[in-house]
Write a structure and sequence with these properties.
The chain has 426 residues and is an alpha+beta fold. Helices cover 56% and strands 18% of the residues. It contains 18 helices and twelve strands. Strands 2-3-10-5-9-6 form a six-stranded mixed barrel. A two-stranded antiparallel ribbon has the order 7-8. Helix 4 (90-98) crosses helix 10, helix 12 packs parallel to helix 17 (388-414) and helix 14 (323-354) runs antiparallel to helix 17. The longest helix is centred in the N-terminal third of the chain and has 42 residues, at 33-74. The chain is elongated and about 110 Å long. The protein starts with a helix and ends with a helix.
């Protein structure tokens, strides 16, 4: 090899010969097979670590976004409950709250537990709501599977979820029986109220807790069914920006014009979303260890390579290669493994995230088990949402660990004494 190519004044850092040597060391010969195996495992470790981190973080983000969207699309962002006196003046209160800037929809509701039965039975939450309000809830109105919401207020029809319809074995147009604990007052005491209702519509929003446990009923009918004295249980307020809910609390309370108790969506779901956030952070820390272990494999592989190439390093030094050139050569060798593993892992992670539901169904078919059952995870499909900033952080972390892993073995190679190395080989 021409000495002028290696470290002449014209050949600066990361000269072509350094890249050539690094490429040769990556293509290990048969007798160096163990070094090659370690490099392969390092590559696979970083690939799997980066891909797993991206996939898990995307699924956790997808869970949070999907659950948040379904919860906020189904329940009010602020719930106004009565204080001191019942909400018999709910029409006036709802009209005043509806005039607040940023309030998108005001929904008076009557809530109450009941037992729904047909061929089977199930406990449900009955929600009395006006047809005009129900139509303005996209999570319900846009996901009608059977029947229709037309003339919802006119007849004794109800809207039920697909999960409940399957459990009761009913379809749109058929009847179900609802039993409420508080019914008519008789000389024998309070008797349960039992009444049949026609299923006007079947909806499916994709969240099993709602699809299998909620029945919508016309507001006036719900007031009669639960013996309400023309009042409502609460007034639900939907805002234009749920993330800035604190800005609406004061104005909504003032606009109500009567004593009310306000609960926003964050207070109602704080435990649930805090648990998701903790789980997400813990999963990130645990899965980061995969990348760290792969980086340590790079360290061990390079140390073995330096030991094996001691005579080559000594010959290069005697031919004029500087310590910096030797160090950069081994840094390129190790960093190449990390960069290749990171890029392939990133692409593989994106590919899996784009087809996450198909992957879930395939794994369920192969294992003959239901992965991520809807009754446990509240969602009918497995979501994935890739956060560009988070993905960039994962890639940066993997590249940084891969680079740091090369420093000690490269420094050790650069500090190798040529005379001592040749004497030991001799």
């Amino acid at each position: 090899m021409d000495e002028t190519v290696m470290d002449s004044p014209q050949a600066g850092p990361f000269a072509p010969f350094e890249w050539m040597l690094a490429a040769r060391y990556l293509r290990a010969r048969r007798k160096e097979g163990f070094v090659s195996v370690i490099a392969g495992f390092s590559f696979l470790g970083i690939l799997l670590g980066v891909a797993t981190l991206i996939i898990v973080m995307a699924v956790m983000n997808g869970f949070r976004t999907e659950l948040l969207g379904k919860i906020l699309g189904f329940n009010g962002h602020i719930v106004a409950q009565p204080l001191e006196t019942p909400l018999t003046d709910w029409k006036d209160v709802a009209e005043r709250i509806g005039q607040v800037q940023g309030v998108r929809l005001v929904v008076p509701v009557v809530d109450g537990p009941a037992l729904a039965s047909s061929s089977n039975a199930s406990g449900v939450l009955v929600r009395g709501i006006r047809a005009a309000d129900l139509i303005q809830l996209p999570s319900i109105a846009n996901d009608i599977k059977e029947g229709s919401l037309e003339h919802f207020d006119e007849g004794q029809g109800v809207a039920i979820g697909q999960g409940l319809a399957d459990q009761l074995s009913v379809h749109a147009g058929e009847n179900i029986t609802l039993v409420a604990q508080r019914g008519a007052v008789t000389p024998m005491g309070m008797m349960p109220r039992v009444k049949k209702y026609r299923v006007a519509a079947v909806f499916e929003i994709g969240m099993s807790e709602y699809d299998a446990g909620v029945i919508f009923m016309p507001l006036a009918e719900a007031q009669a069914f639960f013996n309400r004295n023309q009042d409502v249980t609460a007034i639900e307020v939907f805002t234009a920006n749920p993330d800035r809910i604190d800005l609406f609390r004061k104005t909504v309370a003032e606009a109500a014009g009567r004593p009310i108790f306000l609960v926003d969506w964050r207070q109602r779901n704080t435990t649930f979303f805090n648990a998701l956030e903790v789980q997400r952070n813990v999963m990130f820390l645990i899965l980061s260890l995969i990348v760290l272990v792969a980086a340590l494999n790079i360290v061990s592989g390079l140390i073995m390579l330096v030991t094996d190439k001691g005579s080559d390093i000594a010959i290069l030094r005697t031919m004029g290669a500087s310590q910096g050139a030797i160090m950069r050569t081994f840094m390129i060798t190790g960093a190449s493994i990390g960069v290749a593993g990171t890029l392939v892992g990133f692409c593989f992670g994106l590919l899996v995230c784009r087809n996450i539901e198909a992957v879930r169904q395939l794994m369920s078919w192969l294992t003959r088990t239901e992965l991520f059952p809807p009754k446990l995870y509240f969602l009918s499909k497995l979501p994935a949402e890739i956060d560009p900033v988070e993905s960039a952080a994962v890639v940066t972390m993997a590249l940084t660990l891969s680079f740091l892993a090369t420093l000690y073995p490269s420094w050790r190679a650069a500090r190798l004494d040529p005379v001592e190395a040749l004497r030991q080989r001799g």
